[in-house]
Amino acid sequence: DDDDAVVAGTKLYENVVGETKLIRSYSHFIAISSWAFDSLLFAFQVPYRSISLILNGVVVDMDVTGMPLRRQNPSTISLTGICPEGTLLTVGVASKLTKPKGHRFVIDIVVPQLKKHPDICLVVAGEGKFRSEYMEMSQPNVAYVGKLSTGEMRTFYNEVDVFLDPTQRSDGIDLTVMESMMMGVPVVMSQVPATLDLMPGPPGHLGWTTTLTTPDSVLNILSEIKEHRDDLPAIAKRAQSHAEHHFTLNGMISAYERLFVCSTTP
Fold first, then answer.
1. Where does the pLDDT of residue 80 fall: very low under 50, low under 70, confident under 90, or very high at 90 and above?
2. I need a labelling partner for 217 at 20 to 30 A (CA). Which of 62, 162, 176, 264 fits?
3. pTM assigned to the model
């Protein structure tokens, strides 16, 4: 009702005022996404010179030849048998099973649309609020494998054809997307501001973006992936090359080092 709306509006105003006061007490900020950078610059009026944009970096073991593990080092742990016979594409999701990570949309919209694509198998990994809903699903082409260790995640990336990131969060970048690209796995992700940091360029160049919030959007993206199934190796190679240039841990460390040197040099 109106009273609840007033209370919610007042609380939001107080939060913004509090955050603004806190922000003004710092002399420099590090934004880990363009969205965070723009929020500091335009919403909180932080001077441009007081903000640095440094994307997170990830480490993924690579063979000395430079080829991704998914092509050269098959693991003894396998996802074989989890998806039904006749599966053409295996789509993987790995994250906390929470609403901000987009799993409400996966369960309510993506899973039902997969009934129209029985040759696409969705494999879900992780722990969280929606764990029981995934475990209770009886749909043949949807499999829940629980929380995976680091070694098992390596296998997960090795064996899925496409990685799906349904997150609805705008403030940061999921490391699993970077890891997937590093491993040579094409990515489909929600249309959130971080998309521009991860996958610049037209659809199908490094991966795809979609809203994942309507049946039509999900059907369209599933159909497009199947249509370009033969192009996935080329897309994966481009994505991996992009990740190696922009998302490495050493690159992130170097950016921080340059920032600290510049900040401490008179």
1. low
2. 176
3. 0.81
